[in-house]
Task: inverse folding
């Protein structure tokens, strides 16, 4: 039957990772190569945007034909900083819809056994009760600032369910909270919040100036170290059978304010100067607390890297690679 022929896939896995040069891609590569995440006979291919422009269906098809993956971890996305997203919601919507449809449909066309895509906690409804769990992601529109990107990401979940309904495919998705770590984009203008703050604090220390933090420092976030996300995505690829997405996050009790995070960064970089909060600038969402109880049901003993330790390791990596970092 149509559904049955997708189940037959003997032999070792060949895993294609889109967005392989990004923060999470590099973390997965580290786990695969340095932590025994790769099994005997497996092949892992990490694609970057120079290998193929996934907005283009022809280039997507060509790269799949070149490597013939049995499994795909789909991390690639068109992203920018908060202010770029606010200006160009249409562009982010269209590019990401194309990327996701190209990857998922090409995977289908070529008989890929399983796809694990990466969603984002920014897809959560703006007006909601907390904590948010996996059943709530479509309950109302996402935050207005990047609704284009968020809706495109939500559609992956819709498409996964449709591939399962029509073909029995095991395509699923993870939803990490705020990821940070080595190989992040440390750009002060459009980097992730922690990484931008690490760069800012490092510069302020060098120049003997205060650190200026955008907003009040009050918003709360669940930060998760990229290597933890890498380990969990590989677990999802191998073990997680559901089509419904799974939130990949530290617990609600590990949520911290931006101010607490800045203090940890200052400590890690031995910054003794002044920290100022510019309250004329927007705070964005005050919180988007996610519930990780589904993850905990599957993996009760998974140990997350403590935030202080993870920030220290990220700061050390940043200082070692500062000149080559994209700053």
Result:
């Amino acid at each position: 039957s149509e559904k049955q022929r997708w189940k037959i896939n003997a032999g070792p896995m060949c895993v294609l990772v889109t967005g392989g040069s990004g923060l999470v891609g590099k973390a997965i590569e580290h786990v695969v190569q340095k932590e025994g995440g790769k099994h005997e006979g497996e092949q892992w291919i990490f694609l970057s945007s120079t290998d193929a422009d996934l907005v283009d269906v022809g280039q997507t098809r060509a790269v799949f034909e070149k490597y013939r993956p049995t499994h795909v971890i789909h991390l690639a996305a068109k992203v920018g900083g908060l202010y770029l997203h606010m200006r160009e919601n249409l562009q982010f919507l269209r590019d990401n819809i194309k990327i996701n449809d190209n990857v998922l449909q090409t995977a289908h066309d070529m008989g890929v056994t399983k796809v694990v895509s990466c969603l984002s906690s920014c897809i959560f409804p703006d007006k909601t009760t907390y904590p948010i769990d996996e059943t709530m992601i479509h309950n109302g529109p996402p935050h207005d600032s990047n609704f284009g990107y968020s809706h495109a990401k939500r559609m992956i979940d819709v498409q996964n369910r449709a591939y399962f309904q029509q073909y029995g495919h095991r395509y699923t998705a993870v939803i990490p909270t705020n990821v940070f770590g080595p190989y992040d984009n440390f750009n002060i203008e459009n980097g992730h919040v922690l990484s931008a703050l690490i760069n800012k604090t490092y510069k302020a220390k060098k120049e003997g100036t205060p650190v200026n933090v955008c907003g009040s420092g009050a918003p709360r976030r669940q930060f998760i170290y990229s290597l933890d996300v890498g380990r969990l995505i590989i677990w999802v690829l191998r073990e997680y059978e559901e089509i419904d997405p799974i939130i990949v996050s530290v617990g609600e009790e590990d949520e911290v304010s931006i101010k607490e995070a800045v203090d940890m960064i200052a400590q890690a970089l031995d910054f003794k100067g002044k920290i100022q909060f510019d309250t004329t600038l927007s705070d964005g969402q005050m919180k988007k607390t996610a519930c990780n109880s589904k993850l905990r049901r599957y993996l009760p003993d998974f140990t997350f890297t403590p935030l202080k330790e993870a920030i220290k390791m990220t700061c050390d990596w940043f200082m070692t690679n500062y000149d080559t970092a994209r700053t």
Notes: The two ends are 53 Å apart (CA to CA).
